[in-house]
C-alpha cells in the first residue's frame, strides 16, 4: 500500500463487500419484535463485531496463512475468485456474504422470538462479514509495508463499523426512502465495482504464481 490509490482500494473493496444498505431488510426482519433498547444493543453489537472480524484478519491473518503453509499468491487467486463470486451475487441484488438458507432463517427467527441476540450470527457473520471480507483484509495486509499502513487497514474496520451502525440505526427511514428497488440498484453498483477489484486481485496473484504472465503483459 505504497500509494494513495492503494490506500483507497481496501476501503472501497470493504465497503462494497460489507454494503450495510443491502443488509437493512434483514435487520428490519430479524428485529421486528424487538424493543428500542434491544434494537440499539443489536446495532452496537453488530457494528463492533464487524470491526473485530476486520481487525483480527488484518493483524493475524497472514500468520494463519503461514501456519498452514499457504502462499499469499495462491490466497490472492482464491480470494479474488471468492470476491468475483460475491460480486456476481451482488449483481443479482443479493448480499455479497449472504449464504443463509431457509432453515437458518427460521432458526434465527426462533432465536429472536426467545430474546437471543442475532447481532453476531447471522447479521455480522455471514451477512455483513464472511470469507470474502476476511480474504480482502488479509490480501491487503500483505501489501502493508509499514505499521502505520496496517493501522490504517484496522482503522477501515472502524469506518465499516460506523457505516453499519448508521445504516442499521436508520434502517426504517432508509427502507422507506430507497425502497427495495433503490437498495437493489445500490447493491448492483457495488457489485460492479467489486468485480473490477476482484479481477485486479486475481491478476496480481496469477502474476506472482506464473511470472511469465507478468512478462507477457
Give a written overview of the molecule.
This protein has 217 residues and is an all-alpha fold. It is 83% helix and 0% strand. The chain has helices spanning 4-18, 20-30, 36-67, 72-91, 102-113, 119-128, 131-143, 147-169, 171-209, 211-216. The protein is globular.
Percent helix range: over 70%
Helix-strand pattern, N to C?
HHHHHHHHHH
Overall SS class: mainly alpha
Work out the number of β strands: 0
Supply Rg. 18 Å
Biggest beta sheet summary = none
* Measured distance between first and last alpha carbons: 22 Å
The 3D shape can be described as globular
Strand content bin? under 5%
Low-pLDDT sequence parts: 1-5
Number of helices: 10
Mean pLDDT: 88
Structure summary:
This protein is mostly helical. It has 10 helices and no strands. Helix content is 83%, strand content 0%.
Topology:
Elements: H1 4-18, H2 20-30, H3 36-67, H4 72-91, H5 102-113, H6 119-128, H7 131-143, H8 147-169, H9 171-209, H10 211-216
Helix pairs in contact: 1-7, 1-8, 1-9, 2-8, 2-9, 3-6, 3-7, 3-8, 4-7, 4-9
Amino acid at each position: 500500500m505504497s500509494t494513495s490509490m492503494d490506500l483507497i482500494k481496501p476501503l472501497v473493496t470493504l465497503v462494497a463487500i460489507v454494503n450495510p444498505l443491502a443488509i437493512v431488510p434483514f435487520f428490519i426482519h430479524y428485529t421486528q419484535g424487538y424493543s428500542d433498547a434491544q434494537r440499539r444493543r443489536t446495532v452496537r453489537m453488530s457494528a463492533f463485531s464487524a470491526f473485530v472480524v476486520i481487525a483480527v484478519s488484518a493483524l493475524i491473518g497472514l500468520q494463519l496463512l503461514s501456519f498452514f503453509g499457504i502462499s499469499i499468491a495462491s490466497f490472492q487467486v482464491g480470494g479474488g475468485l471468492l470476491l468475483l463470486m460475491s460480486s456476481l451475487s451482488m449483481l443479482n441484488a443479493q448480499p455479497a456474504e449472504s449464504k443463509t438458507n431457509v432453515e437458518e432463517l427460521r432458526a434465527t427467527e426462533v432465536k429472536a422470538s426467545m430474546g437471543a441476540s442475532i447481532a453476531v450470527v447471522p447479521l455480522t457473520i455471514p451477512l455483513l462479514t464472511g470469507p470474502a471480507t476476511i480474504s480482502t483484509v488479509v490480501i491487503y495486509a500483505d501489501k502493508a509495508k509499514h505499521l502505520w499502513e496496517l493501522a490504517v487497514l484496522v482503522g477501515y474496520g472502524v469506518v465499516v463499523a460506523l457505516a453499519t451502525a448508521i445504516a442499521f440505526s436508520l434502517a426504517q427511514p432508509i427502507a422507506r426512502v430507497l425502497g427495495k428497488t433503490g437498495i437493489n440498484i445500490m447493491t448492483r453498483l457495488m457489485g460492479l465495482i467489486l468485480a473490477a477489484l476482484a479481477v485486479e486481485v486475481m491478476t496480481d496473484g496469477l502474476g506472482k504464481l506464473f511470472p511469465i504472465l507478468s512478462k507477457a503483459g
